[in-house]
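Researcher: Good morning. I'm working through a list of sequences from a screen, and I'd like to move beyond sequence-only analysis. For each chain I'm collecting a predicted structure so we can compare shapes side by side. This is the next one on the list. No need for commentary yet; just the structure.
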Amino acid sequence: MEPSEHEKEKIERLRRAMYSRSLSPKLRDRERRPLGQEQSSVGEDFVESQEEVAGSSVAPRAIGFARRALWWLLGAAVIFFIGAIGFFSYYFLLGGGSSGASSSNISISVSGPPQVEGGSPTELQIVVANRNKVPLELAELVVTYPKGTRSVSDFATDLPNLRQSLGTIEAGGTRQGTVSAVFAGNEGENATVKIELEYRISGSSAIFAASSEYNIVFSSSPLSIAVSGNNQTISGQPVELVVSVASNANAPVKDVLLSVQYPFGFKFSSASPAPSTSGVPIQSGAWQIGDLSPGQKRTITIQGSLVGEQGDGRVFHFTAGTRKNTTATSTAIETVLADNTFTVSISKPFLGLAISVGGASSPNVVVSPGDNVTVAIDWQNNLPTAITDAVIVAKLSGILIDGASVHTVDGFYRSNDDVVIWDKTTSGGALASLLPGARGKVAFSFRMPQSDALKNVINPRLNISVNAAGKRIAETGVPQNLQATANQKISLASDLTLTAQGLYYANPFGSVGPMPPKAGSETTYAMVFTVTNTTNKITDATVTAHFPPYVRYVGICSPRTECDPDARKLTFNQEDGTLMWNMGDIEPGVGLNGTAPRQIAIAVGFTPSTSQIGQEPPLLQDIKLIGIDTQKAEAQKNINPGAVIVPTELKSVKDVTTNILGDPGFTSANSTVIK
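Model: Good morning. Structure tokens for this chain:
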């Protein structure tokens, strides 16, 4: 608080006295008092009394009035600004300052039946109303139909869309009309018809549009598909399905197509009529049925076999419809008019059959030419009831088997059709009645043909198809005929031949050195490799041989087709003395029936040591042919589909020594090393 005037005056007098020369001597010292221990009592709260101030406004009254006026002015400005925005928005978007016509002021209403019969003519009433204040110029009605819609006058003509001119629709005016079409769809499906109005307004070249949609619900389909056949089958047994396609439409249905999607495990065998093949996937079938008049029906019979495990359900999918272009050759359905499915369940065979060849149960067994083969057929009754008069028949087909080599103890071989039969007469009554769960075995043996008999056969194979039949009494008391089948393939391994011949007198490169070979002197020879093949293609074929340390590769070979250094078919490793002839593929029949064998000749030099005097030292060692027999590879993949097939040793021959018998002019007296 600022000191009062009186206090200021006292302070000023004291200051003058302190600094005045005349008054300072008159100032006397006051008596000093000792510092005591007195303590003044001070309250906990320090309050300084203040003079009361009469209640009044701090600011003058004029300032408060101005402030309130400013707030009113600000509020009015905000209200004005919001009103201006609303006005101009309405004016330029909806009012007189807009484009002149708004799509929201255009009404397009469509009326028609709540449900539509597929394939029947249908009429839709369309009304267009212009509620704008300006006319709509050059107005056009555009109707976009769903897929598969056809013309009423010509059912073969597609109606993708319709464009109709309405001229100028005055402000507040309306236009109405009727459109007719034949809609197509499955029962219960929905389809949408889109209606658009395109127009212009005066003074603008832009095209504006308003749209509406009409939803169609199909009460029936123009086509129907019915499938009949057995709902149960045994794996591998024939399956027959009868498919009927009928027209429910009131007008002809043009260019009808039927497509069938076969399930996994179904093997198509035949159909009546035969299917079309253009553009059809492997697991599908397609038929060009053609035109169907109202009430007309076409029937197709499909035959095949179905393979699967017991309890599997396989579904056949049938689709009927039309294509967009009736002149096209494709069998792809553009518009689906009907579909259906048919399920066939696979039951357990009444008589389980298992075939083994030489104890192996692979679907494809590979044996060698001339081998004796034993085939065993294990059977088991899988029914809860007895089977009577069982018959098992094994049919041999493919390569010809010598009937005299076929032997069976409990069956009968019928040579006129290569069939082995077992029944109650041949088995001593064992197959007369098979109790539930009963099992047994029948067998036969034969000899495979020799290679000479297979010279003109490519990929020879013997097929064994086993059929079993029997009877049982059904629950209704009626006898039922039962069937079961099993199949086995036996392939023949290719009979490869590999020869390695040493030549001195018939050396195509010309021989140098003494004959018989002399210790310390080099004698040159030609080594000729010859390969022939009978029945199966061999891939990744390679011939390898090893040179002893006293034999060197001269570096000459023939013919050029096998020795071309650019092709790198013939390579020699100097470090380990290995010669490799990369043959690639060996086709069946090479070297047979007048065809040339695969052959190569190389020149080598032999320098014998004194330690070899009187001996017939080897000139080439460890000669073998490795590769992949395609028949064996197929058999391995049947057993293990994920197996990696690698080349294996197919043939090997003895070492080539200095005893080169077979060379014209050579005698065994020249085979040993001399001093």
